[in-house]
Write a structure and sequence with these properties.
With about 150 residues, this protein is an all-alpha fold. Helices cover about 80% and strands about 0% of the residues.
Amino acid sequence: MTEIFESTGQALLYGVVGLAVMAVGFIALDLVTPGKLYHVVWTDRNRGAAVLLGSQSVAVGLVIMEAIRASESEQGLGYGLVSTLLYGLAGVLVMTVVGVVIGVLTPGQMGAQVLQDAEDGRPHPAAWVQAGMYLGTAFMVGAALS
């Protein structure tokens, strides 16, 4: 029974680290998209922004999952938590840089394009492209950790 409580505690600690990395990811995405992301998604109900935020959240989760797997070591829980945090932040940084580079290489301002829902409410195709880039980047970063 002690092992179950210990494992539960470890899971909670890794969850806190994952939440912190997701919060940093949210802030990074907010910095590279026009407007306040919270307002654009929850108040304006912008579907392109929701696609982007949702994909980035899944991508960060994938990186955290691989970071936790890679952190399993004999050096203890503290080492695992710190390495998961650093690997996760590295993933967020790479995703943000990829987003900025894609924005530079595409016509118009990528963040503005993504937030231009069609008149019928469909997200701009750029939102799906950016979502794919986030997920692809997460798979690359995750593979680098294993």
